[in-house]
Please model this.
Amino acid sequence: MSKSGPRATSPHTVGEFWLQKRPQSPYWQITCYNKTTRSRNYRSTARECVEEAKAILDAFYAEQRSLAPQAVEVAQVIPILMTYWREKGSKNINFDQTGRSIRTFAGFLMQDRVTDGAVITDLTPALFERFREWRMGPHDFDLPWGDRREPYASQGVSGDTVQRNLNDIRAAVNHAHNNMRIPQAPRIGMIDRRYRSKHKDRVLSEDELARIVWYSYHFPDLFRFVTLQMVTSVRPTAAGQFNPRRQFDQRSGLIDLQPDEAPNTRKRNAIIPAVRPMKVIMTAWSQEEPNPVVSHKTAWRTMRKALGLSDDVHAKTIRYTIATWLYEMDWVPERQISEMLGHVNQSELARTSRIYAQYRPDKMGKVVKGLEVIWLRTSRRVREIDAGQLLVRAQWHQQYMIIPRPNKDATSAT
Model:
C-alpha cells in the first residue's frame, strides 16, 4: 500500500484499522485491508464528527481484540461485556435484565477512577464495593447502546438488584475465560448480607387479585400475561416469553411453560393441563400475530399505581399467591404443587409431568381443580367489582371468565 494512501492520511489509526471519509458522504467509516481477498472492508461509524468516529473505532478495535486470547493485564472489561452480550447475553430468557446489568456496569466504569479503559485486573473487591455504593445511591449515566443512546437515572436500587448485576458481570467474565480469551477469571463474590432485602413473599388478597384481573381486561396482552400466571403460577420471565403457537397443544390441552430454546437450568418450568376457560384464551391467542408488551414492568407499575396497590406487589406476587392458596387447600397434594412451580428435578419433571398430564390426568387433576376453584372465585369477584363495565368495555373477554357452575361444591369442578 502506498505511503500516501488513505491509511497514511487517516486522522486515526489503530492496529490494522483506520478512519476515512465515505465517498460523497459526510460520514466516517472504519477501514481495514483483507489480505485473503486483497480488498478493503468498510464499516460505517454513522458519525460526521471525527472525534466521535475515533471513539467508535477504538471501541470496535477493543471488541475485536476481546475475541482473541489476551493477558488479564490488558484485556479490557467493557469489550468483554459487549462480546458476551452479542454471543450469549442477548439470547438469554432474561436478556433485558442482562442488558441493564451490562449498561449499568459500563456506566459505572466510565465514572470510576479506573475509567472505561478498565482491564480485568481492575476487577477487585474494592471496585465492586465502589460499584455497590454507587448503585445504591443516586446515580446517572448516558452511553451508546447499539444504534441509540441509553440515558439512565436512578435514586438508588436495592442490594438484591446490585447482586443481580454482579451475577451478570460474573457470567460475562466467565464466558471469556471459558472461551480461552483470558487465562483466568477474577472471583466476583456476593455483596454483604446486610445490604440484601429480607425474604418476604407478598400474598395478594382475593380482592387485590380480582382488581388486577379486572384492570388487565382492558389490555389484551396484559390480560394474557396475568391469566397465564394465575392458571399456572409460572415465573414472570417465562410468562413474558410464552408463545401459544409452540407451547400450547390444543389437542391435549397441555401448556408447556418451558420453551425448547430455554437454557437448561435448575429453574425448570412445568407442563400442566390448562383449566377450561384458559383453553379458550389460548386458542384465540395462538391465532393472533405476536404483539408483546414493550415492557411488562412498565405496564405493571402503571397498573399498580392505577389500582392503588402497594409497591411490594410485583408480577411474581401472583406466583406466590397462587402457590399459597393451593397449599392452603389440604386436598391438593404438595407433589403436584411442586411440579407446577418447577421445584422438581428438571429431567424428572420433563418426563413425568408430560406422562402424568397426558396419560394419567388424575395425577395432576387435583392441582388443576384447585386452579379452577381460584379462577371461579376470582371471576365472581371481578363481576362484583364492575359487572356493567365489563359487559360494555370487555365483552369479548367475559366468556373466558365464566366457568360453568359445578353441580356440587366448588372443589368438584373439573
The longest strand covers residues 39-47. The radius of gyration is 26 Å. Residues 206-412 form one domain.
